[in-house]
Amino acid sequence: MSDWIKKDAEAIWHPFTPLRGMENPLMIERAEGVNLYTSDGAKIIDAISSWWVNLHGHSHPHIAKAIADQASKLEHVIFAGFTHEPAIRLAERLLEILPENQSKVFYSDNGSTATEVAIKMAFQYFYNQGVSKKKIIAIDGAYHGDTFGAMSVGERGPFTEPFDPYLFDVSFVDFPEEGKEEKVYQQFRTLVEKGDVAAFIFEPIIQGASGMRVYSMALLDKMMALAQTYDVICIADEVMTGFGRTGKLFASDCLINKPDVFCLSKGLSGGAMAMGVTTCTEKIQAAYRSNDLMKTFFHGHSFTANPMTCAAANASLDLLLTKESEENRLRLNDRHLSFLKMIENHSMVRNARVLGTILAFEMNTEKDTSYFNEARHYLYPYFISKGVLLRPLGNVLYLIPPYVISDEDLNYVYQTVLDFLNNPPKPESTKG
């Protein structure tokens, strides 16, 4: 064990990681393109974009230069009573590519806080008008973050159990599995027609952390249409799906009806720096435009609209909106669809699916599909040993690589997955 790893073990508490019984983390010294390089010289293909944030490859020179240039001019300034050009430019550019109904940008610093802002914005929208609407609808299996509001609107389970007494009440409808869409719609309708629902929050078209579960666009459109008829604010959590992951710039671009509020993060800065954004319509802002100070949206963060982060996000948009990036996303989708045909009937595979640049499937195991399926304990180290970073969601294996991944690297990842399926090692041989 290196001195650095010893120091890590003594000083750092890692996310989603038990304090006992886990192997030591890998020491990453540098990264370039889709590759991570460890301190012992190993190269690992980042096939999950480091928790879905990296769009254009690691250490991209255009983003790095934008950060460095900004750091030499203005590294940070309080965003209450002050503003700066990188934040203004970014807000204008985001509003240009989001649906036309979006008209204002509120900055925060990650996906969970973007969700918190959205929830508070929706509740206070009604409060400012003297309207009593205090309920939220979410979809079972949802994940919207780990702060308390975000946990409240997410799936209740082992992750939230210690905090359940402190979470506010939320009405959940079933996840709309294929063939159950009408049942879910009727559940939703019953809740909405009571007239006391303030907001409906959802991950549009695909749920990420619950296993890359895809559901009906037509159903979501129908649910949104009903919600907006009853003045229910529709909140699209596009933290994972935004910036091209589903093939469109935003998953909501696939829908006829448009959300009232968007939550954005992850790919927003190309994965270079932490940032969150919540956008909303003019209608929502109207409830806050008042001479009454108490109708102000009293929310903020120390690093709101950090200039270096805004510069990184602007640089990421420069890259995202190029023809080359669009072609790379189309190429990824084509390659995933071809690989899907190779594995969808494999005895080890069930429910294989592709959405844009995302490919996912469930490993056939003796236990049900779940985040806590023990398959993860041997899948992760197996692929690391082959030089590929895949972080399975239980027995759900997925690929969501940076758009710049080469065909050669993609072929290697596909072949590594195929080799595993054709000759899976015994779990005991890959456990730490």
UniProtKB/TrEMBL annotation:
Q: Does the keyword Transferase apply?
A: yes
Pathway assigned to this chain's UniProt record: Cofactor biosynthesis; biotin biosynthesis; 7,8-diaminononanoate from 8-amino-7-oxononanoate (SAM route): step 1/1
What Gene Ontology cellular component terms go with this record? cytoplasm
Q: Which CDD domains match?
A: OAT_like
Q: Does the keyword Cytoplasm apply?
A: yes
Q: Which residues carry this modification: N6-(pyridoxal phosphate)lysine?
A: K266
- What's one GO BP annotation on this UniProt entry? biotin biosynthetic process
The record's keywords, sorted A to Z, are: Aminotransferase, Biotin biosynthesis, Cytoplasm, Pyridoxal phosphate, S-adenosyl-L-methionine, Transferase
Q: Which domain of life is it from?
A: Bacteria
Q: Tell me the compartments it is located in.
A: Cytoplasm
Which Pfam family, any one, appears in the UniProt record? Answer: Aminotran_3
- Tell me its cofactors: pyridoxal 5'-phosphate
Site (described: Participates in the substrate recognition with KAPA and in a stacking interaction with the adenine ring of SAM): F16
- Report the principal subcellular site: cytoplasm
The top EC class is transferase
**Catalytic reaction(s) noted:** (8S)-8-amino-7-oxononanoate + S-adenosyl-L-methionine = S-adenosyl-4-methylsulfanyl-2-oxobutanoate + (7R,8S)-7,8-diammoniononanoate
Q: Where does pyridoxal 5'-phosphate bind?
A: G111, S112, D237, H301, S302
E.C. numbers: 2.6.1.62
Residues binding substrate, per UniProt: W51, Y143, K266, G300, R391
Say what the protein does.
Catalyzes the transfer of the alpha-amino group from S-adenosyl-L-methionine (SAM) to 7-keto-8-aminopelargonic acid (KAPA) to form 7,8-diaminopelargonic acid (DAPA). It is the only aminotransferase known to utilize SAM as an amino donor.
In terms of NCBIfam families, this protein maps to:
bioA, PRK05964.1
Q: How does it assemble?
A: Homodimer.
List, alphabetically, the HAMAP family matched.
BioA (MF_00834)
In the record, the note on similarity to other proteins reads: Belongs to the class-III pyridoxal-phosphate-dependent aminotransferase family. BioA subfamily.
List the protein's name.
Answer: Adenosylmethionine-8-amino-7-oxononanoate aminotransferase
